[in-house]
Amino acid sequence: MRRRALLALIGAIVARGVAAQEGGPAAPIAALNDALLRIMRTGRVSPFAERARTLTPVIERTFDLNQILATSIGPRWPSIPAAQQARLLDVFTRYIVASYVANFDSYDGQRLEILPQTRAIGAEQVVSTEILPKNGDPRRIDYVMRQVNGGWRATDVLLDGTISRVAVQRSDFRSLIAAGDPAPLIASLEAKTTKLEAGEKS
Q: What is the tens place of the pLDDT at every residue in 17-29?
């Protein structure tokens, strides 16, 4: 009986640990990696639009896209009318999805792995991942995760562990919207999305 009770206790502890991990900051990234592997295995045999439809809900669950967009635009964001904010969010979402579809469009034995340790930056947690090719050096991508409405969402992506995607696009976005009109930024994002859909990489 004691042995059974001990095994039951261990099982309960392990189950709680797994549940905590599944609800932790790495959980959305694990789901994103799974979705990326699915579209990579499908590759260009599947139309770009179909792969984008598959990935869009995963991207929307993984990233706090509204916060990323607001941070990238900066102080002008609150003054943009709600209808134009919604339009910007729509084209920005399609651009982010297109970027992932274009850059994860083939499979040759690559593995996408989450490194075991996260690191804290204030209230945020950084989840580190690696793209491990069949041959060659791995590439590191870190996701800065923040709790939003009880769940974890990514608010930035660090390429090679250091290059902030938000910081890179901030300069571009703010120059395009310097006059307060979001139309040039919308046009730029739509043009970039069209190029990605045509086969360019971001």
A: 333 356 799 999 9
Residue 7 has pLDDT above 50, yes or no: no
Domains of the chain: 2-197 (3.10.450.710)
- In which residue are the tokens 């974890």 written? 152
137: burial class by Cβ within 10 Å (0-12, 13-18, 19+)? exposed
- Span 145-172, average pLDDT: 93
Asked if 153 contacts 64 with a C-beta cutoff of 8 angstroms, the reply is yes
**Neighbouring C-alpha atoms within 13 Å toward the C-beta of 137:** 3
Residue 121: both structure tokens together: 């930056």
Give the Cβ contact number of residue 94 at 10 Å.
19
Burial of residue 86 (number of CB atoms within 10 Å: 0-12, 13-18, 19+): exposed
d(CA 77, CA 86): 11
Predicted pLDDT at 154: 98
Residue 94 vs residues 26, 114, 121, 190, 194: alpha-carbon distances, Å: 24, 25, 29, 8, 10
Axis-axis angle for helices 65-73, 165-176 (nearest 10): 60
Q: Which of 101, 57, 62 is nearest to 193 (CA)?
A: 101
Residue type, 83: A
pLDDT at 110 over 90: yes
